[in-house]
Design goal:
Elements lengths: L1 H6 L3 H35 L10 E6 L7 E5 L4 E6 L2 E6 L10 E3 L4 E3 L6 E2 L5 E3 L8 E6 L4 E10 L8
Antiparallel strand pairs: 1-10, 2-3, 3-4, 4-9, 5-6, 6-7, 7-8, 9-10
Bound molecules: FE2/S2 (inorganic) cluster (FES).
Length: 163
């Protein structure tokens, strides 16, 4: 009888083993569900903030620009223009559908490659579907002699920065 117990576990031992198995499965499932809930709660409670680049950019030392020059800063999508009257900054984003424009020194115009709008170096619309001129952007000189541009603030045209 004792030998029979070693090879064939009794009904009670089988029951305990089954109970133990289901307990472990239950605890495991509970653990996975809790981890998922905690992960979801953490994501829900974390601030959902979109960090954007500052609208204010430094476009370099004013003395580095030659008179009668138009310089495109591709990363910040801004033109720095230096004329005998002074400096100004233009947005390089086309006012039609937002393409990046390009300065054409041989033609003396700013051109949009998307639908053919043309602008003067002062931003005035010359041709194409663009509904408005390129906006002038607030520009000032830092204490270090660098030109600073606020891409979020437009100004009336012909307000040159005189140094
Ligand atoms: S986006 Fe410049 S002309 Fe259309």
């Amino acid at each position: 009888m004792a030998e029979e117990n070693k090879t064939n576990p009794s009904e009670t031992e089988r029951e305990i083993s089954r109970r133990s198995f289901f307990t472990k499965v239950g605890l495991g499932s509970l653990g996975i569900a809790s981890a998922g809930t905690l992960a979801f709660a953490y994501q829900f409670l974390s601030p959902n903030v979109l960090y954007e680049a500052s609208p204010i950019v430094n476009v370099g030392n004013a003395e580095s620009y030659e008179v009668n020059s138009v310089t495109l800063h591709v990363k910040s999508a801004v033109y720095t223009v230096r004329l005998p009257e002074g400096f100004f900054s233009l947005s390089a984003i086309c006012t039609h559908l937002g393409c990046m424009t390009a300065w054409k020194p041989d033609l003396g115009i700013i051109a949009c490659p998307c639908h053919g709008s043309h602008f003067s170096r002062e931003g005035k619309k010359l041709a194409g579907p663009a509904p408005k001129p390129l906006p002038w952007l607030k520009t000032w000189l830092s204490d270090d002699g660098d030109l600073m541009v606020d891409r979020s603030t437009t100004i009336h045209p012909l307000q040159f920065l005189r140094i």
